[in-house]
Sequence to fold (365 residues):
Amino acid sequence: MSHATATHSRRRPQGRRGRPAKPPRSRGSRVRRIILWTLVVLVLAAGGTGYWLYSSLNGNLHGVDLDEALGKNRPEKLPTSGQNILVLGSDSRAGANADLGTGKVAGARSDTALVMHIPEGRTQATAVSIPRDTLVTRPECTKSDGSAIPAAKRVMFNSVYSLAGPACVVKTVEQMSGVRMDHFMEIDFSGFKGLVDAIGGVTVTVDKPIHDKSSGLDLSAGTHKLDGTQSLAFVRTRHGVGDGSDLGRIGLQQQFMIALLSEIKKQDLLGSPTNTYKIANSLTSSLTTDSELASLKSLADFGRSMNGVDPASMETIMLPVRYDTADPNRVVPAEPQARTLWKAIRTGSEIPESAKKSPAHGTSQ
Fold:
């Protein structure tokens, strides 16, 4: 066969006006086109739904402008100080919290206060608990309505929130520690309960039985998976542990915080969009932050920057305190331990073991 003949034999059949006829469309090709268009429709639909969900969750967040509320009279931000976040747990008895058995107290107080310190590099973290019964000097503050609150000495730490709001708590902590707070986060009891239920519970282990009629907590020694209501009782119990004071339950709060963060970190969020939304909705509905974090994007960016921090390796410390000589039902910062602790956090240095011992508690945390 000649070259011309061979070439001619490979020519496609001619369609109208001499154009090559299109090959017949296979069933597989049609299926692929249907799948492709279906995916396009789903992506567009998801985009619209995603935008609605984003707007809904973003609208849940509440922000406080710390720079405006606190002014310029704040501790200096040192280049070695890493990130410092004040985390507050609010025990408001209003709204949904009134149904949670948290007691009959007017207004709201910062039932839990933690200074989270993340050194440069963000591979480890330290949590310093401030006992709510600590007597502190409250600085002059401005409330959200613009009215002024005068400075006062020897006031209970958890009363600052109820009187002057979260910005004044930040200012009080900065004044007593000399550490500038980069961010603050507050979650109330109802949101805390919803968050625990959304992630399916939190597992804790207790060495001794805990029976507290006041909080309703009844646990045998061993490992337990707590739901939201049980978790609230766990972090609030004080009569069933230690000496029955606020100091005894701080250890439980620290233990639970680590367990909660570990559970959230190991959740398969991408594998379960429904659970992700439940968690995000529960968290954002009850979360108040500083204005820099008061958006989903800012929270997500901050969360991603913390991926290298392992909650299981977090060091938990109670602010060293001693019982007040004038009022044995209250405590005051123990010196020089407290001063040494805050200096180490302020400068990003290793915290000495001597700064972790609390005379009122008898042991280091």
Notes: The mean pLDDT is 78.
